Amino acid sequence: MKSKLKISTAILTTAISSLALFNSLTTAEPVSELQMAQPAETITNQQSTINPNSGLNPGYSITPIQNTKPVPPNDKLPNMTATSAVVIEAKTGHIIYQRDAHRKMFPASTTKMMTLITALEYGNLDEIVTVSNNASGAEGSTLWLEVGEKIPLGDLLSGMMMISGNDAAIAIAEHVDGSVPKFAAHMTKRAKELGAKDTNFTNANGLPDENHYTTAYDLAILAAYGYSLDHFEEIVSTKEKIFPWVHDPAHLLRNENQMLWLYQGGNGVKTGYTDAAGRCLISASNRNGVQLIAVVLDSVYMWNDSIALLDYGFSKVENSTLIRSNETVDNVPIISGRKHTMPVKTTDEIVMPVFKDDNEAYKINYDIPSFLRAPIKKGDTVGKVRVLCDGQEVAETNVVATSDVEQKSFFKMILNAIQSFF
Fold it and tell me: What is the pTM assigned to this prediction?
């Protein structure tokens, strides 16, 4: 039986001093995922020259970093240290910034985000998972699960995302699909369906494998999809939680993702680290109704890089009303009616993130007929307004008739035809 003191060590790791946390934000030395799980609340009283408009929470600071890696000459964030990075707006998938975002990379434990998505779609949070010998024997960061333990799927998903339990990932995979290889194939198939074309998974936890890879862009769009699922945001944004099955008297798990404390609106999603992958982080923030997703892979200073990415993203986007409700969009001719024309109006308002440096991102298509035929009832749907971003439809609203229009009598129609002839 594994020692129950080992999980205590993991929890004590999350209670080290503020100096150690500050070093974890600025040191280039390799660290384990547990070593990255420091209490962000204790970063205070550090002099910082970070952008005054940064989303860094009050009372927190980081030391700006001078990047020594070569970057493209026109890179907007030259001091960002990640080999591959991207920040997107989640509702549209629009790329605000990218650096080699389609390069195939090792994802480390950011893999577990897709494990979560797959389990949410094909499992039930109340289902009971029985821990196998295979799961209990997992290497790397674990929740120290023991063979035969029975734990609700929802609890394991939270534990997996908070403490990056490789054992939990295996247990989840075996529960959903019977084996890790089958689950990994399932993950890959679903990821590609969601647009992650350059992704292949061979396991559920992200341990190194030359055929286990993804891209910063693919992870970003998968994360954006995740936020559309029930329970996803709840799980990935939980800072601390007590579970009775945790092998420690406190029964407390604390999330390794420091962005939940560091950044305003921080609401997910997952850290990762292996020697092969380097430091990896998918982070997210929702501010003023705008949801951004940032991904850094093989980063020297992943917290700094992620803050810089989100700051840049929020400086380039703001919500704007593209279509107003009850807005007249056309005056349509009517055939065989007691009225010759009728204004048609939108039903709903469409508010979308607008990108300051890209006026060409959006196109609005008005799908409205060239004429209407009586009889018509007020409120009848007669068309649509469709909003496209980067060529993909992202929103729509109905266009409706604004009044009743009766059909002309047959005699009146004949009379009008005769009159028009003469």
Answer: 0.86
